[in-house]
Amino acid sequence: MGKLDGRIAVVTGAASGIGRGIAVAFAREGASIVVVDMVEESEAFDVLSSVRECGVSALFVRTDVSDESSVNSMAEQATAEFGRVDILVNNAGIFTESLLENMAVDDWDRVVNTNLRGTFLCTRALINQMLERGDGRIINIASQLGQIGGGAVSHYSASKAGIIGLTKSLAREVSHRGVLVNAIAPGPIETPLLERETEEWRSAKLAELPIGRFGTVDEVTPTAVLLASAGGTYYVGQTLGPNGGDVML
User: Fold this and answer.
1) Which pLDDT band holds residue 202 (cuts at 50, 70, 90)?
2) pLDDT, the chain, mean
3) Domain containing 221 — which CATH number?
4) What is the domain extent for residue 133?
5) In the annotation, is 235 catalytic?
6) In Å, how far are 10, 121, 204, 230 from 234, measured between CA atoms?
7) Which entry of 156, 161, 224, 243 is annotated as an active-site residue?
8) Is residue 140 helix, strand or coil?
9) Domain count along the chain
10) Rg of the chain's alpha carbons, rounded to an integer?
11) Is residue 248 part of a domain?
């Protein structure tokens, strides 16, 4: 018996990185997965195959989480295929770097619209069917940069801080109606996103981390499984931080 047997999970940004890891971890625990991403389905072949190898169903829906009609279409396809959605993981996000003094408005809008607006749109599209049943889990992927900030990433930090605030506010609205809302704020994790950083940045960041190394996706996924499963029933509006000591609260 898996911890998520028979559950249906939507994971956004699931074609790679942390999203892919969470999708596969949920599948190993018995959940069927709706893989949501901006890429073509062929680029999600790996995660879809890994999910199906766990003996559960997988559906791919290409979605722009910043676009309302695209998100609503995704929600309709997911519920048409599986009848309901029990777990939503808002993981889709983008990251760029720029000093605020030089930042283009379009760059600010693109990051905030994907990371924060996307979390709002996906949640709004799927939460009503959870509330009708009095059962559901929403897990928002924030970042330690939403807690401590970071140079040249004010737009990204603001979007992730917004996700943490959204998580707390929504948890106060819906926890008594059976829907639990929490966030995960990972530190620097070895993903394609981190691989694009310069060696100078990587060296400086490593020097700041008490644990002395970057994390792996497999060190984040157990937190998502906890929050999605029976073990997470008393977590409400929390932000859990697998971050190697970058943030200590």
Assistant:
1) confident
2) 97
3) 3.40.50.720
4) 8-238
5) no
6) 22, 26, 37, 9
7) 156
8) strand
9) 1
10) 17
11) no
DSSP letters along 143-203, please? -THHHH--TTBHHHHHHHHHHHHHHHHHHHHHGGGTEEEEEE---SBSSHHHHTS-HHHHH
Torsion sign over Cα 59, 64, 69, 71: positive
Residue 244 lies in a domain: no
Encode pLDDT of 111-157 as tens digits: 999 999 999 999 999 999 999 999 999 999 999 999 999 999 999 99
Q: Are 120 and 112 in contact (CB under 8 A)?
A: no
- From the list 25, 28, 23, the residue with the least C-alpha distance to 2 is 28
Q: Hunting for tokens 């008594």 — which residue is that?
A: 176
Note the residue count of the chain. Answer: 249
Does residue 249 lie in a domain region?
no
Which tokens go with 232? 């997470």
One-letter amino acid of 248: M
CA distance 122 to 90: 7
pTM here?
0.97
The verdict on residue 60 lying in a domain is yes
